[in-house]
Write a structure and sequence with these properties.
Blueprint lengths: L3 H11 L5 H5 L1 H9 L4 E10 L6 H5 L9 E3 H16 L4 E12 L2 E10 L3 E9 L4 H7 L7 E12 L4 E10 L1 E10 L8 E12 L1 E7 L2 E6 L7 E12 L5 E14 L3 H4 L10 E16 L8 E11 L9 E13 L4 E12 L10 E3 L14 E3 L1 E19 L11 E18 L15 E11 L5 E9 L4 E7 L4
Parallel strand pairs: 1-4
Antiparallel strand pairs: 1-2, 3-4, 5-6, 6-7, 7-8, 8-9, 9-12, 10-11, 12-13, 13-14, 14-15, 15-16, 16-17, 17-20, 18-19, 20-21, 21-22, 22-23, 23-24
Length: 480
């Protein structure tokens, strides 16, 4: 952040190190700050602290340019925006941009960054269920539903912000995945490519829902009930700082054991136990948030249109439209309001169960309904949180942790008042799920959000839904 001390330092440098500016005469320093030039020209931009990250990756996020005249207030505003964009690369723990006044209406920009640890070997130990409450209550804390394995993640391959992820998982769902994302393949840094492949199998899978809860099926005589292979290639275009375009071509093949049809004859709707199709998706994203992992200011808009079934032999032929629009309003350093509207719609009357959407499936949820799934062809959810930051601390633990990337341990605590509401339209009006489909639903309550190292988020919430059911829920990551 741009701080008083850094700005005072820049003025001190410009005046040749006069001790009256720093330490001996605070009033003189304040007078100098009040007499900053009306207009300035940036002569140079210097970047320090980027041991791994290439300079051009950082410069791509900076709107400020050398040789251009800026009003001082405009300069400060652009510095703040550029700091946010660099931080949202998720490559740095800390970003500071400081203007160094070197002469009459002349400045240099110093961009100082502290890099994160980029190569992260992950131990996979998670639940196969939608959330902790689902596993704890509906699945009776069944340890067989735990996934375990390993994953290697490199978040900055070659210092060019390329992402590589390779992982294998055993347990409830056996998975192998590989992802490589190169955000820029051209010198102007506007075009990118990503490729992803995944293979997984299940011995126990959700086959339907009843009473607005998931119903799982397993067969001790069958080792595998579902086998899935998928691959995709994504082209990205970023013509401006906050607007992104994605075009994804994908292939999916899902095989299920015949016994699944004894539990749900409509699991697939095309007559065989193998589902194969190609898909094409266009996604537009406008992202102007101060922190993409836990935003307190800005806005996010996601629009996507997907065509399932590109060729005559494809087993699915349908269109899907998705929208997510979030607004983050910061009133002051303590209070901010978050409001998010999500919408999803299929054109078709019925979809294969593997494409079912609804409340309870990410990102469509209403607090208080964590134990339920409400499925249908159209879903609309409006989520709201008023948050109060009552704790903001940071600890230097460098004496105990030898790695600089983990030397600073932040702790932020927010108290949130939440209200979510929504509606699911089920054209098929499945009788066993009519309790919650095709009707207005809402939930409200209080929550405590912990934001800590690398912007990890933990949420403890007590919520009551429109059925007057209340409970505590523990969640990981921000709700929107």
């Amino acid at each position: 952040m741009l701080t008083y001390s850094f700005l005072t330092l820049s003025l001190w440098i410009a005046l040749g190190g006069n001790n009256e500016v720093l330490g001996q005469d605070d009033d003189a320093a304040e007078n100098i700050l009040l007499n900053t030039p009306d207009k300035v020209v940036i002569n140079n931009i210097f970047i320090v602290g980027n041991k791994k990250t290439k300079k051009n990756i950082i410069l791509r996020e900076i709107d400020l340019q050398t040789g251009v005249s800026y009003d001082w207030e405009e300069l400060i505003s652009l510095i703040q925006e550029d700091q946010k964009k660099i931080y949202n690369l998720q490559l740095f723990n800390k970003v500071e941009i400081t203007p160094l006044i070197t002469g009459s209406e002349q400045i240099e920009l110093l961009v100082s960054v502290t890099e994160r640890w980029y190569i992260i070997p992950n131990i996979i130990l998670n639940l196969a269920d939608r959330n902790l409450a689902e596993w704890w209550t509906n699945q009776n804390r069944d340890l067989s539903r735990v996934n375990y394995g390993g994953r290697l993640v490199h978040n900055n391959v070659g210092g060019r912000n390329e992402r590589l992820r390779v992982g294998g998982q055993m347990g409830f769902i056996r998975t192998f995945e590989v992802l490589y994302n190169k955000p820029y393949i051209d010198k102007k840094q506007k075009h990118g490519l990503a490729i992803q492949g995944m293979y997984f199998t299940q011995r126990n899978l959700q086959v339907r829902s009843s009473g607005n809860k998931q119903v799982f099926y397993s067969n001790e005589e069958e080792d595998i009930l579902r086998r899935n292979r998928s691959a995709s290639l994504t082209y990205t275009y970023r013509g401006s700082f906050y607007n992104f375009h994605y075009v994804t071509a994908g292939y999916n093949n899902t095989w299920i054991d015949e016994d699944v049809f004894t539990q749900n004859p409509n699991f697939f709707i095309h007559g065989t136990n193998s589902l194969e199709y190609f898909a094409l998706r266009y996604n537009y994203r406008h992202d102007k948030r101060d922190n993409i992992l836990y935003a307190t200011q800005g806005q996010l808009l996601n629009l996507a249109l997907t065509r399932y079934g590109l060729f005559g032999g494809d087993d699915v032929k349908d269109w899907e439209f998705t929208m997510n629009a979030n607004k983050y309003t910061k009133f002051n350093d303590k209070f901010h309001l978050v409001s998010g509207l999500s919408f999803n719609a299929f054109l078709g009357q019925r979809q294969p169960f593997t494409l079912v959407r609804g409340i309870g499936y990410n990102p469509y949820f209403i607090r208080g309904y964590e134990l339920n799934v409400v499925e249908g062809q159209q879903v609309i959810v409006h989520k709201n949180s008023l948050r109060f930051k009552f704790l903001d601390l940071g600890y230097n633990i460098g004496d105990f942790v030898p790695l600089e990337e983990f030397a600073y341990f932040p702790i932020k605590l927010y108290l949130s008042a939440n209200f979510d509401h929504g509606y699911v339209n089920d054209r098929n009006r499945i009788p066993e799920n009519l309790r919650l489909t095709n009707q207005y639903l809402f939930g409200y309550g209080l929550g405590l959000d912990l934001v800590t190292l690398y912007d990890m988020v933990f949420r403890l919430e007590y919520s009551i839904n429109s059925q007057n059911e209340g409970a505590f829920f523990l969640n990981i990551r921000a709700p929107f």
